[in-house]
# Entry
Amino acid sequence: MIPTSFDYVRAGSLKETLNLLAAGDGTKIIAGGHSLLPMMKFRLVQTPRLVDISRLEELRGITEHKKGARIGATTTYAELATSPILRERCPVVAEVAAEIADLQVRNRGTLGGGLAHADPASDMPAVMLALDAEFELRSKKAGKRSVKAREFFKGPFATAMTEDELFTGIVLGGMGRTAAAYESFDQAASGYALVGVCAVVARKRTAIAAITVAFTGLGEVQFLSPAFDRLVDTKGDRATLAQAALEAVKGVEIAGDLHAPAEYRRHLAQVAATRAVQKAYERAGA
Ligand SMILES: Cc1cc2nc3c(=O)[nH]c(=O)nc-3n(C[C@H](O)[C@H](O)[C@H](O)COP(=O)(O)OP(=O)(O)OC[C@H]3O[C@@H](n4cnc5c(N)ncnc54)[C@H](O)[C@@H]3O)c2cc1C
# Structure
C-alpha cells in the first residue's frame, strides 16, 4: 500500500528536531525506517511530517561510560555487533545485535528506533530489562530525563515516552561480576523471536548469588520473572531450574499466532530460559 502524504525534513540539529516535535501536530521521527515505513504503508501510522534523524552525529556511537557503556539512539545493530567496547564490557548486546534480522536491517535499523517502537516480539527490550539499562529522553518542554528500561515498556507498541520526546541514548551499567546470555527461537522468515530470554547471573564460587531473567515474544510486553529467585544460593541444578522455568511462564497470557500456537511458545520459553540461565551461569564462572 501507499502511505498517506507527508512532509519530510532531514534534521540538521538536535535543537531543530526537538522544536519540530514540540509542535504537537503528530510529527514523527524516522531513524532507520524499518518499522515505521511498513506501518505507514499499512496506514497503521499516519503523520503530517517525518523528521529524519539518521544523520545526526550527536545521536550516534558507543562510548565508555563509567564501568559500562553509553549508546547513542541512532547507533545501528551492525555498529553494536562490531563494537569493541560492547564486546569487552557488555558482550550480550553485541551478540544479540549480530543475530537480529538480516544485514540490510542491521545496517539501517537502530537500537533507539527498535526500543521506541516497542514491538512485543523484538529481542532488545528483554536484554535491556535484564541488564537494568537506563534510557535517555529529551524534549523541548521538559528537557532531559532518564527512564529505567523496567519502567519504559508499557504494552504493545506503547512506552513511557511522550509525543514530543526524542529517545537520545541508552546507558548500560558495568557487568561487575555478572555474566549474561540470550537464547531465542526465531521465526525462520524474519528472524523475529518467537520467544527470547535474557539471563544475567552473578556467582559466588559455584553458587548463584543473584539472577535476573527477562522474556520476550510471549505476551503483550516483555517482562522480568521473579520465579528464578529460587535459584539463589543453589548451583542451578536441573530440577530447580526446570521448576523455575515452568513457574515463570505459568499463568502468562501468551499470544499464539500462525507462527506458533500459545502452548508451543510456552514450551519454547522454558527451553530458552533453561539454556540462557545455564549459559550465563557458566560464563559467570569463567
Ligand atoms: C525484515 C525485518 C526483520 C526483523 N527482524 C528482527 C529481529 O529478528 N529481531 C528484532 O528485535 N527486530 C527485528 N526487526 C525489527 C527491527 O529491529 C526494527 O525495525 C528496527 O530496530 C527499528 O529501528 P529503526 O531505526 O528502523 O526505527 P524506525 O522504523 O525509523 O522507527 C520506529 C519507531 O520508533 C520511533 N523512533 C525511532 N527513533 C526514535 C528516536 N530516537 N526517538 C523517538 N522515537 C523514535 C519512530 O517514530 C517509529 O515510531 C526486523 C525488521 C525487519 C524489517
The CA atoms of residues 4 and 46 lie 6 Å apart. The mean pLDDT is 96. The domain at 178-285 is CATH 3.30.390.50 (Enolase-like; domain 1). The longest strand covers residues 193-204.
